[in-house]
Each structure stands twice: as C-alpha cells, then as structure tokens.
Amino acid sequence: MKKLRKYLFLPLLVLLAFTLSACGHKDQNVYQKVEANKHIVWGVRADTRLFGLTNVKTGKIEGFEMDLAKALTKQMLGKKGTASFVTTANTRIPLLKNGNVDAVLATMTITPERAKQVTFSKPYFPAGSSLLVPNNSKITNVKDLNNKTVLAVKGTTAVDDVHKSAPKARVLQYDDYGQAMSALKANQGVALTTDNGLLAGIAQENKGYKLVGGVYSDAPYGIAVNKGQTEMADHINKALKQLQANGTYNRLIKKWFAGIPGFSLKGVLK
Fold this sequence. Notes:
Elements: H1 2-26, H2 30-37, E1 39-44, E2 47-48, E3 52-54, E4 61-62, H3 64-77, E5 82-87, H4 92-97, E6 103-104, H5 112-115, E7 118-120, E8 129-134, E9 149-153, H6 158-165, E10 170-174, H7 177-185, E11 191-195, H8 196-205, E12 209-212, E13 224-226, H9 230-245, H10 248-257
Parallel strand pairs: 1-5, 1-6, 9-10, 9-11
Antiparallel strand pairs: 2-3, 3-4, 7-13, 8-11, 8-12
C-alpha cells in the first residue's frame, strides 16, 4: 500500500515542480537573464528573402534581420555576447509567451491588437504596402489600380490598404506569394501588393520586375518582447538607437536592399 501511495504521489510532485517552474519563468526578468548568460535567443523567420532566409548550401539563416540581431546582441551584451535563432512564423507570439525565445525579430508589423499581447520596440524598418509591376508597366502609383486587377496574399493588410487607396480596384487573393507572383507573370493582374520589404525580396529573385509608387500605408516592423519585459525593450531601443547613430544600421540596409529596382533607400536609411 505504501509503495502504491509512493507511485501515486510522484506525478503530483512532477506537476507541482512544473507549475512552480512555469510561474518562475513567467515572472523572470528577461534582460537580467540574457545579461547574465551573455546570450540572446531570437525568434526569426527563415522564409523571407532579404530579411531571413535559409541558405540551402550552408543550412544557415541569412538576411537583414539576422545581421541586425547579431549587432543588437553585441551592442547590448558586449563583445562576448552571442545570439542564437529559433525559426518562427505563425508561432511568433506563443514562442515568446512560452519563453522559447527572448525576443522576436521577424517582419512583425506593430499593430494595436498585437500590442495587447507583447511589448514592441521602436520601429526598426519602415514597412508599408507597395506595388510590384513588370518593368514595362504603366502603373506608377496605387491610384492607377482603380478599375484594374491587383494581386495579393490572403490575410495580409495590403488587401484592405488597396481598397482604401483605390476603392474601384479588383483584388485577387492567393494562398502564398509564389502563387501570387505566378499570377502576375501570367498577366492575371497588373500589380502585386504587399509590404515594400517583402516585394524587394521578390524583385531580387524575379528579374524584369520593379517596385513603384513608394509606400501607400504605414505598417512599420518592431521587435517584440513578452508583455511586462520593459527592461528588455528599453535596452533593445537603446541598442537600436546606437546602431543607427554609429552607421551600423545604414550599412546593413545597404548590404541587403541596395540595387533592388524601384526600392527607395532614402525612406529607410537613418
């Protein structure tokens, strides 16, 4: 009987330990942890050209956000500071909430709804909806889309943005950017719309296409930390400001976005 009670009691001990651990983690000061460990775990994307994309030859994730994360890490923690990356997409906020990552740097648009769940840094990339068209297109800005068909991806803010600026535009929505770009090549629409940074990556991969019209909406990207981790957010903001002041930020922007047809560096450089 004593042996039976022992086995019944063990699961309760495990559950209690897990609960205490979870509570302790929830209340943990993330900045104090990363400062002590000299290490930051960043949630990033590995499927977005120019921002974060897996190099099939090396298996490493490369892009503007990877370089920015490494630079922020050194700026915050010193020369001995190291960074590691966890791939996120639709799981960005859950991974942050569960403590799997210390901060998320993954083309994350700052929105009021998301701000209820996470704390954002100051914007690090001035994203906004733009247009991708063939080089010989007569489309020059979003208002030219009235009474024409424009292509977009389901679930993106660009769909609403188009209708606000060109209410008579017809929008065809696709499941992903590959399908939408194929439709543009097949002349099923006169333009593809989404964030300017994402379009820059698509333009780099598809010669004969360019960005036009600048940005017609304001949807900047921010670095997210868990709600309540204001010290971590403050140190990220301080480091970001320092990188902008010492020229590191501009160097990284030029490294990844210079030479993209129609992409304006002027609106991005600090």
